[in-house]
Amino acid sequence: MESTGGNARGRRVTLAVVAIAFFGFVARIAFLGDRIAHWDEARVAYWVLNYADTGTFEYQPIIHGPFLQQVNHLVFELVGANDFTMRLVVALLGAALPLAALLFRKRLSGAETVAFALFLAVDPILLYYSRFMRSDLPLAVFMLFALGFLIRALDTHRPRYVHLGVVALALAFTTKENVLVYLVTWLGALVLLVDHRLLVERGLWFDPRAAARNRIKTLGPALRAWIPHVLLAVVEFLVVVVYFYAPRTGADGGPGFDKLLADPTLLPAVVGEATVGSWNAFFTQWVSGDSQDHAYLPYLGDLVETLVVGSGALLVLALVGFLVDRYSENPRDLVAFAFYWGFVSVLGYPIITDIMAPWATVHAVVPLMLPAATGAAVLYERGTTALAHDHRPAVAAALVIALLVVGQMGYIGVENVYLDDQSESNALVQYAQPADDLRPTIEDMAAVSATNRGTDVLLYGDFLVSNTSGSREPKCSEWFNLLPLPWYMDAHDMNVSCARDPSAFEDRLNESNPPVVIGLSTDSEFLAANLEGYDERAYVLRTQDTAKTNTTFFVDESRLSRNATEQSNP
């Protein structure tokens, strides 16, 4: 394929990709903090705050890799903790994703490169989960850049791309454990490509062993020249992994990354904990457990449904692009590799995921965008050819297909990403997303807690209140049932107490007279009878299980107005 770099056309392609990336940046930053935190976002964000408060950190595979915890820890210290800053790093990585298209430009046409970047910027699934604080999008970003840098190294023979690729791969290992799945799918795609080359292109009587010996003999001297770079790359990989995975022990005992300057002799123990210790924790949680013990077809159906709704046009273009390239005079390994990678991901993720989750589709749509870009380029080239020859039916057909693609992506992007980003009917929304906008009440809770003395929030009922003291704040709560509220309570330093039954509720109410009381809506009649003058506000904390998570907040609005007056007249 003709290179798009080093000439005027190449510069135009580069400028177009940069402009697309800027558009993607704006699309991700706009209204980034508006959506109330998802259960999973709040869980990880709470642990980031806990890390900031205590100075202690250890890898917990149940919340996946440490990348977001380590990076958001710095973000929160610099610019504060809220829903916007919580999602900022993921949004920035998602905005950078279209730039990865430039790494493949020697193997793609200018139209394909621009189309690839455009899909990476505006695909509704990627756009939604670029605005979501979870590790799936960062993993996909780092792995696409890693592949791009390594291919760029093959195309240019410049060692710096190997080092950049290894750093990107190491960062991918810090995001989420299914980075291993990427490596498996890459290996499988390579096997298919090798099989195609050996048995189809060179005939059935081709001797693969002789070909392998000749290739090794040819590549041997070149590989020896790269040995120093490979050794350095191994060191780079370990440095990144150890930095992110190593525990921080703070004031507690034990080896920690934060204690290395004071005691360098701890380095072997820290490296061991960051590597072997983390692997053991991962294996215990995700390999030896039974979290993936579920029926396959329902999970496959859920994933395919999300793909069709969010990226249906892209799937069609990917199939068209793969078939057109596959049966062309010069089929390209890159297009076939990306299609195999995406196709295997569609079939494989329903096996390894522990819950039905729309974010798993991220790992399939990213590779499928490359053959989709080929399909889009075919559409563009045939449309322009038809226009040049005044072939009106062909021009009309190309325009109709283009409008259908743009219309599907544009409508789903606007509706499902911005206008209706919390609804159960939205296929991109995972079921643990609060169905209602709690923002006004969260802001009222934060405002009253800023000046209130004593208990700010009282939790009521055995669904929200534990009968034992836990390790997470609020310690008296059934913490997982209360999510995403603990994130907001901790971020705004709210003083929370609990009452599990009516007797305890009356005692707490008389003792502290809290300005905010929270209980399930099934208890709202009892609570309302005891909270005269409080404003009653009902919300659903999950898009599913609404009967269980329909929650009522009682807010003493007179306390709000009183606090506002005190703040305006200090």
Short description, anyone?
The protein is built from 23 helices and 7 strands. With 570 residues, it is mainly α.
Characterize the structure shown.
This protein is mainly alpha-helical and 570 residues long. It has 2 domains: 8-245 and 290-408, no CATH class; 439-568, D-Maltodextrin-Binding Protein, domain 2 (3-Layer(aba) Sandwich). The protein is built from 23 helices and 7 strands. It has helices spanning 8-29, 39-54, 67-79, 83-96, 110-122, 124-129, 136-156, 159-173, 179-201, 208-225, 227-245, 267-287, 296-326, 333-352, 362-388, 392-419, 439-451, 479-482, 485-491, 502-512, 524-530, 546-549, 557-568; strands at residues 56-57, 248-249, 457-460, 496-499, 516-520, 535-540, 550-555. It has a 5-stranded mixed beta sheet, sandwiched between helices. The chain has a two-stranded antiparallel ribbon with strand order 1-2.
